[in-house]
Amino acid sequence: MTQVGNVYGTALYTLAQEEQLTEQLLGELTVLSQCFRENPDFIRLLSSPNFSKQERCQILDDSFRGKVHPYVLNFMKLLTEKGYMRLFRDCCESFRQTYNRDHGILEVRAVT
Question: What angle do CA 73, 78, 81 make, to 5 degrees?
Fold first, then answer.
């Protein structure tokens, strides 16, 4: 995980915690992270210098407004504007790790 991903993911977690939205946002981030993993061209589009920042944010609005919490949408816009959208998965991982730590959840992998 990158330092930028850790900073942004932790910041979003802190906001979600203050607003008592951690479970909801964690769910949405998990789904989005999986969607972006399956469709990497969407991240490339949001990182493309061929479109202005405003156009890229409009793409996010057109794709996600009303489908995700406004905090998640604005978070993606912030990452897009800063040129960090390619680090979205790192941010989600940081959010999830912080959530797990705060809730006493230990992830394990069972192999049989």
Answer: 125
Written as six digits, the tokens of 83 are 């040129």
Profile the chain (112 residues) by mean pLDDT over runs of 10 residues: 93 97 98 96 94 96 98 98 96 97 92 91
What are the contacts of 63-66 at 24+ separation with CB within 8 A? none
Q: How many CB atoms lie within 10 A of CB 58?
A: 13
Would the pTM of this model clear 0.70, i.e. be above it? yes
Cβ(77)–Cβ(30) below 8 Å: no
Question: d(Cα 89, Cα 39) in Å, to the nearest integer?
Answer: 13
CA–CA distances in Å: residue 73 to residues 28, 48, 64: 10, 19, 7
Q: Which two tokens stand for residue 14?
A: 């802190």
Residue 1 confidence (pLDDT):
74
